[in-house]
Amino acid sequence: MIRRDVLKSLALAAPFAFPPGRALARSESPVAAVPGRWSTDRITDWYGLLPWLVGANYLPSNKINQIDMWQASTWDPDVIGREFDLARDTGFNTMRVFLHPLVWEDDEEGLYRRMDQFLSLAQHAGIRPSFVFFDDCHYPYARLGPQPRPVVPAFHNSGWVNAPDRDLAERYARGEATVAEVAALKGYVQKTIARFSDDRRVLYWELYNEPGRGNGEYDASGTLILANIGDRSQHLVQDSWTWAREVAPSQPVTSTGFGNIGEMNSAINTANSDLHSIHSYDGISAIRETVTEWKAMGRPVLMTEWLNRTRAEDIPAEIRPLLNDAMISKGFDGTNIPQVVLPYLKAEKVGAVHWGFVTGVSETNWNWFSRYRNGKIRNLAAERAAGNVLRPSETIPEPYTWHHDLYRPDHTPYDPAEVEVFQLLTGAPRARDARPLSQTRLERR
Fold it and tell me: What is the CATH number of the domain that holds 330?
């Protein structure tokens, strides 16, 4: 695992900076499960009736974050429908999809109508999605209305926002959230689950993605603030389990067990999850070790984030001094790719849900290091204030080597051989012939 001093040097921001120390095994967990956890037999029987689960973390290619996807003013079912048809042709049968509490609080019934339409589009394509409620990843300030444009030069996932907003998350951690704020978060979880608790189109619920993380933002003095929140998230993590178990949906419930920052965050989720949701952007050797450990706990395992094509030679020289050799060799060996990971996960019947589907304004085809200049994380607010943003009419730039994502906005694949692996292992029909690699690719930096 990456050292704490390296985490600090990288502004506690990079998604490859997984929590120090090995994950706690279930028997070592210092917390007890909230009553209502599915028995091992029940979840094993449920999982045994499913096909091998294959899909992606889904964000429409023309949306920059969760709010942009779900609020009424920017809802775009036409793009979702077309991309779900592409997902079906790729062999997908699930998608992992993020919600946001601000959208629910602003327009509860409208959100439910959009979720129902989303589920119908998914059902038409043979896809059963899961929904994620909370997320500490990326940027602290969230608001409704027009969302920020991607910055230039390209910046990996420049618009993704915390859920809840970091200010509320910190006050919740200190016990200072208002009664109304707590009630809203509880209602967001409970009423949403209750609304779809018997809907077979929903595969499962995920309460919290990677608690403890965060990219932070710069204040007026140029100081990076509000980066990772660590175990201060544990109170909301714990309460989310209480809220979900009170509803007791027909679908299983999980929350990220591996990929968090904070031992208590991970312990609470490990102790309570009906099935385990784990993340790994490391090479195949580390993936094998992680999967073996989590399967030994006796419950089904889903790899709900993976896909890291970036190799050691793609790491900028200015970043290399911040990383140790062991981390580079473990995390950037070029084996976290479909041709290597998918056959292994299928053999183990571990769900395979990678990050990114059709690339777009989130620019997650650019690697994590695009966030840095001169050895420190870029100041997004300052860059946007200076007008360094991609205009709607401008072509989205494409790196030479993609980090995440499978397809371009015109639905041609980054690497046709990768798509063929998905189709071969899932039995999907071969996709249309792909055009040659785009001439808009940029040369290696």
Answer: 3.20.20
